[in-house]
Amino acid sequence: MKAVKKKVSEKYLPPNSDVLKIFYQHYFGNDVDYEKLTDDELILEKQRLLKELEEESDSGKNKKQN
Asked: Into how many domains does the chain fold?
């Protein structure tokens, strides 16, 4: 038998921004209008969200270990 190579192609599908916006508003429960924030406020919000994600991932790891 001979191995057959299979062509694998990947197509980029951009996220549906309206759906993501609704999901974030529902999940995080915040009604912040990011378009009106200044650059400094956006940086602070990014840091806050990254910290929140890190805490959630750490708590998930702790649950798995127990």
From this structure: 1
